[in-house]
Amino acid sequence: METREYKNLIGGEFVASSTGKTFERRNPADQRDLVGVFQDSGADDVHAAVAAAKAAYPAWKKVPAPRRGEILLKAAELLQARKERYSRDLTREMGKPLFEAGGDIVEAIGMAQYAGSEGRRMHGVTTPSELPNKFQMSMRQPIGVVGMITPWNFPMAIASWKMLPALVCGNTVVIKPGEDASVSTFNLVECLVEAGLPPGVVNIVTGYGPSAGQPLVEHPDVPVVSFTGSTEVGRLVYELGARQIKRVSLEMGGKNPLIVMDDADLDLVLQGVVWAAFGTTGQRCTATSRLIVHRAVASTLVERIVERAQGLRVGNGLHPDTEMGPLVNGEQLERVLSYIEVGKGEGATLRCGGNRLTGGDYDHGFFVQPTVFTGVTPEMRIAREEIFGPVLSVIEVGSLDEALAVANDVAYGLSSSIYTRDINAAYRAMHELEAGIVYINAPTIGAEIHLPFGGVKATGNGHREAGPTMLDVFSEWKSVYVDYSGSLQRAQIDNVE
Ligand code: NAD
């Protein structure tokens, strides 16, 4: 298979990093497959990329928003035409099966269409004035250079959620993709450039977090930082940004609950749980990691989940019949295996899985068995901490009140779900679950890009990606008052009787 050396994209040119160092990325399903060689960039590379983005900004912000949107719409067509190739690249770099990789690309296509068409809306507000002969309105303005730091788990989709709204608003971009999956960012930007994006409007600097991410967060010419990743790194990014009063948008970890009440349709639950707990090898920020199930149906349901989990076809995502791919790297494998030990040590019952898969092709990758723990109590670490792997913790409860209390009793608040046929229970959950996303009779994964996406508590800091909210991080409101009375008219605060 093809191996390419990827250089940083700075000011429209592909350039080697100033450090002279590179790093390799190998397929997590097969370490013999070298996916690409990337620049191990440092602060000087980041500074050059920010300078290029700053230089490109004045001209780009003057391009009318509908014209900017047209470039995105054209990019959507190119992505569509290359979907198959890009899906293979994505599977090779981070491991998810081809059909899921296709979903990553489709999400970027949807976002390109959605953000592209926003170029013809970008609505502001006009209101009547309280004074005669006076007009007033508000409008969105771009902010400048946006620094973007992304994870590896949705390498094309997450880059698109950030980049495309930022671009349609008129900002320029420097992106530092996750070091385990940088190819998909190059593929996305390739389409934008071919669609007509001018040089310097998007710049890519690859490398590791502390050496290539942190200088981007700290650069004084980057007023906005958009980050998706772990809560631990997000907290650091927030602290660094605060020192310069930057606008920092954070999308971080999750510990997503799926509640099953005793009146739920268990056939539906079964499909949803297996998909949401083991899809993407549990490495979705919205993955179901806690099954909070009513005691009356727990043993029947668990029995069926275990049977399905044991039957999942685990393997290289490039094989068409693979249902679950590998973990992203050796470190993540160690982390998941160590959490499995923690679960056993805490007294939870290992119902299935729990081991690394070995023998034959498995020996070349980072494969772990789909794992289910029962007898989990809410205070156990496997019920509270983000594992980011195919490990499901089953917690039994006796009522809706208890289910909601357990669901909310964690630091995170990204996605959540309830299966019930009782409309009152569904509405209560909808209101009371502490999460940015609630699903009724559907699993915790499956967000659509035209609704706001993000979480509460330790998952986010109040911003939302996608949906009508997607422009908020990347634009500044300006209010404009036009007084055409020809005289000094005093408004509100200066006009007190
Ligand atoms: P991570 O926090 O390890 O890395 C994320 C990015 O931050 C990477 O590009 C990394 O290089 C960079 N980084 C690391 N140290 C840095 C530093 N000191 N300064 C600046 N940048 C730095 O996360 P990950 O392992 O890539 O991704 C998994 C995590 O992402 C999980 O916690 C998951 O829940 C979260 N996630 C959240 C969402 C969401 O929308 N809420 C979506 C996907 C993933």
Task: Write up what this structure looks like.
The chain has 2 domains: 5-252 and 460-479, Aldehyde Dehydrogenase, Chain A, domain 1; 256-440, 3-Layer(aba) Sandwich (Aldehyde Dehydrogenase, Chain A, domain 2). By secondary structure, it is α/β, with parallel strands linked by helices. The chain is 37% helix and 22% strand. The chain has helices at 43-62, 65-81, 83-94, 98-118, 157-169, 183-194, 209-218, 231-243, 266-278, 295-311, 330-346, 400-408, 423-432; strands at residues 4-6, 8-10, 13-15, 22-27, 30-39, 125-128, 134-141, 145-149, 172-176, 202-204, 224-228, 247-251, 256-260, 288-294, 349-352, 371-374, 391-397, 412-413, 415-419, 437-440, 456-457, 476-483. The model has no long low-confidence stretch (mean pLDDT 97). Helix 1 (43-62) packs across helix 7 (209-218), helix 2 (65-81) runs antiparallel to helix 4 (98-118) and helix 2 packs across helix 6. The strands form 6 sheets. It has a 7-stranded mixed beta sheet, with helices on both faces. Bound molecules: nicotinamide-adenine-dinucleotide. Residues 149-154, 176, 178-179, 208-210, 213-214, 217, 228-230, 233, 236-237, 251-254, 285, 386, 388, 414, 455, 459 line the site of nicotinamide-adenine-dinucleotide. Nicotinamide-adenine-dinucleotide binds at residues 149-154, 176, 178-179, 208-210, 213-214, 217, 228-230, 233, 236-237, 251-254, 285, 386, 388, 414, 455, 459.
Structural descriptors:
497 residues; alpha/beta; Aldehyde Dehydrogenase, Chain A, domain 1; Aldehyde Dehydrogenase, Chain A, domain 2; 2 domains; seven-stranded mixed sheet; five-stranded parallel sheet; 13 helices; 22% strand; globular; binds nicotinamide-adenine-dinucleotide
